[in-house]
Amino acid sequence: MSFVLSMLLGGMALRLQAAPPTISADEMLDRVVAQLPAQHIQAKGSLFVRLRRGIPRQTYTFTLDANWQPPTPTVTYTIQDTDAIPLESLTFRPNQEKAFTYRSGPDLEDAPLPDLTANIADTDISWLDLTLPFLWWRGARFVGEESVRGFHCHIIEVAAPENMPYTSYEKVRLWISSEQGLLLQAQGFNQKGSPIRRFWVQSVRQIDETWMIQTLEVQQTNQDQRTRLQIDDVQTNVSNDL
Fold first, then answer.
1. Is residue 238 part of a domain?
2. Which of 62, 78, 155, 226 has its CB 3.0 to 4.6 Å from that of 89, i.e. a possible disulfide?
3. With contact defined as beta carbons under 8 Å apart, do 181 and 193 qualify?
4. Taking the CA atoms of the chain, what radius of gyration do you get in angstroms?
5. What is the CATH number of the domain that holds 26?
């Protein structure tokens, strides 16, 4: 079942001016990870590229194979064309020496890692926006508070690790709901401090007591198009063999 964010808590009153957080910024990132589904899931979805006025430009499909929780979180996204022919795939394993594995072509052969913040195909979304590795980065700090879609959020900034490969993100700014620990919005910045891309969550999906993104909008700075990610189908408790 999908829930629009404005109805996420039903009639529960939201605090627009919450007390200062009692946990560190890194612990708040851990809280977001803990809200991700505990089960191994497989999902299918679509990427809709359209102009600002809603004019369709391109459509892709994707599959997601994910187990976000310890001891060995692993997430694989595979991008396909509308005939379900694979185009490229990325596997992310947090805190591993080889955190990213990239494959491309219809046979998904091993290939060198691309720029993880570059556009995937003709979309506005990047591999970093899909796999969310910044939730595992350390050294985060609180930089403010703001209401997003009626939810009070703590704003956190976290810098990319020095050993982070193939990325033009110098830092990522995250809006996390103070009550629920959900990531509602994020923005990536380059080394000059200029925003490159932002995404915002439009709806989420509940799986038991945890949550995953159902619909996500992504837009690059100064571009006339945006991309919507939409999860269409989710299967839970699948085999743990990735």
1. no
2. 78
3. no
4. 17
5. 2.50.20.10
Q: Could you tell me the pTM of the whole model?
A: 0.85
Separation of alpha carbons 95 and 82, rounded Å: 33
The domain containing residue 146 runs over which residues?
Answer: 22-232
Question: Which two three-digit tokens encode residue 41?
Answer: 């899931």
Q: Which residues contact 227 (CB under 8 A, 6 or more apart)?
A: 47, 48, 49, 50, 123, 124, 125, 217, 218, 219
Residues 164-198: pLDDT tens digits?
766 788 999 999 998 888 999 999 999 899 999 99
Site of tokens 């050294």: 139
131 three-class SS: helix
d(CA 225, CA 45): 20
**Total number of domains in the chain:** 1
Does residue 242 form part of some domain?
no
Q: Which two tokens stand for residue 134?
A: 């910044």
